[in-house]
Amino acid sequence: MNQCRHDRTTPDFLPCTVSQVLDWSVQKIEHVDARALLQHVMQVNHAYLLAHADDLLSSDHFRRFSKLVWERIKGVPIAYLTGLREFYDLTFKVTPAVLIPRPETELLVEQALAKIPESRAMKILDLGTGSGAIAITIAKHRPRSHVTAIDLSIDAIAIAKWNAQNLATGNIRIVQSNWFEKLVAGKSFDLIVSNPPYVAQNDPHLQQGDLRFEPDVALSTHDNGLACIRYIIATAPAYLVDGGQLLLEHGYDQSVQCRDLLEAQGFCNIHSQTDLAGIERVSGGSYYAENLQPGMQ
Ligand code: GLN
Hints:
The chain is α/β, with parallel strands linked by helices. The chain folds into 2 domains: about 20-75; about 95-285, 3-Layer(aba) Sandwich (Rossmann fold). About 35% of the residues lie in helices and about 20% in strands. The longest helix is centred in the N-terminal third of the chain and has 15 residues, at about 60-75. It is elongated. Bound molecules: glutamine. Glutamine binds near residues 102, 195, 197, 198 and 199.
């Protein structure tokens, strides 16, 4: 058997065992990433890799794995290379057309679920759904609710629809729309949730890590990252039933501004929740029409 030479940049020698090819790749990328990519190519779990460390890799698996390793070296996010991301308790298809669902966004889902009684048929709107992770997770956990998910991007809508179908989500409607534009006017939603773009356009993080490969339209916006949050807070009352609630994910330093905007708009019961890192990440409030200040429509 040929030896798998670790100093080669193009693995053009075969056969190699699972452990040899992992040894080769961990000199170039993180071990956890190498394992995820090899599992993806072989369509096996970690236990299988461990149990079959001495198995020979097929040339097709070898070729596909080494291609992904090179993509990873360039910085392409693992989720885009495998096309999958776990979120809450579900697995979502992701492509570069959508933001990769983040663990901190699970807080938004948790908060939303806490506000949706299992027994009630509540109407929920998710603005800027991307892969559909938030909307579909809510819909799956609250089968009596009716979830509407909108996104501006036609490509994102296709992914969200694929995920909804793959996860057999019946109580969801996915609509291509520029925010509220294609929704029927009127106060019909009990809860509006959103993880809008909120990174400032000049934020250096946009040039780092996974963010370099994610869609700008889903990540950043003008007004120091506040433009979409400001717009949603200003427009949501026209679509909320009396006492309806709005829940927004926002940047690590935007909770005070978010609460101020909610208050200025006439929301009450305004609150913020911290994520696992202890950062205020989700803010929201309820809207009652009688809260309107004199002169406001
Ligand atoms: N929290 C994400 C990040 O900073 C951004 C998500 C968003 O813009 N909605 O990586």
